[in-house]
Specification:
about 260 residues, alpha/beta, Nucleotidyltransferase, domain 5, 2 domains, 5-stranded mixed β-sheet, 10 helices, globular
């Protein structure tokens, strides 16, 4: 009877985590974070324009047979489902109406938020920072650097501190400490960790957090990487790993 009650009342939403190098999507029971559909992890094929990426998102949603609420985490600033910046995807995305393009699936039950904000929502609701008090800094490490601040769960959206100037080197912070920079410059984990440490100290001094949550593919090396960085506060990897962004987007749309 308890299992039947849970199945009848569980809220299921699809989350899309759109990044600079690819997208991930899947449906979740948002109260628990349990996946309830297949999982898609699709790299971009060179072109990052909407005309290339959106049809592949649609194909993936169709493959899952999904019809229902959809939340999207987008790598840029977003306001009321409107894309304001897209530094790692290109200007063709500015004001692109993704909600309209996916309407056949969500039927009006749609939201789009910043991708790092989506990770922070997942981790605060169900993961590493669940119900933690104080100020939590979430950092996503990918094509760029995403940042989110939560204070007792209240979030300031679209911070994008990775776009701030590096305190010592020319260019934006993310151009020196992102996963893309490590790949392009062929840095060892040790070399890149030294760079990331400098950026981490800058962000920590800027935000004065009580806890830091890190997310990104680099966490595959967490056992080694965690020993190469330090902070004045506790650092935790995202509990939901690669699913955190999509899960957070799904949770966000469930709250509409």
């Amino acid at each position: 009877m308890k299992i039947l009650f849970r199945l009848l009342w569980s809220v299921r939403c699809l989350g899309v985590d759109l990044g600079g190098s690819g997208f991930r999507l899947g449906a979740f029971e948002v109260e628990t974070g349990i996946p309830c559909s297949g999982w898609k992890n699709v790299p971009h094929e060179g072109c990052t324009r909407p005309s290339s990426i959106v049809p592949r998102i649609i194909d993936s949603i169709q493959d899952l047979g999904w019809s229902g609420p959809i939340g999207v985490g987008f790598p840029g600033a977003v306001s009321k489902d409107r894309i304001l910046t897209a530094p790692n995807l290109g200007d063709d995305w500015l004001d692109f109406d993704l909600k309209k393009e996916l309407n056949d699936f969500h039927h009006g039950h749609f939201t789009m938020i910043n991708d790092c904000d989506a990770v922070a929502i997942a981790e605060y609701n169900l993961g590493s920072s669940r119900n933690k008090s104080g100020t939590i800094l979430t950092i996503t490490i990918g094509t760029g650097i995403g940042t989110t601040i939560q204070n007792d769960g209240d979030m300031i959206p679209n911070l994008e501190y990775g776009r701030l100037p590096h305190p010592r080197m020319e260019g934006a912070l993310e151009s020196h400490i992102s996963a893309r920079s490590r790949k392009e410059e062929k840095l060892s984990l040790q070399q890149w960790a030294e760079r990331f440490q400098e950026g981490l100290e800058f962000l920590e001094n800027l935000t004065e957090p009580d806890m830091i949550v890190l997310y990104g593919g680099i966490l595959e090396h967490w056992d080694t990487f965690s020993g190469l960085i330090s902070s004045n506060v506790k650092i935790e990897p995202a509990q939901f790993g690669a699913e955190a962004g999509a899960l957070g987007a799904a949770i966000a749309v469930s709250k509409l």
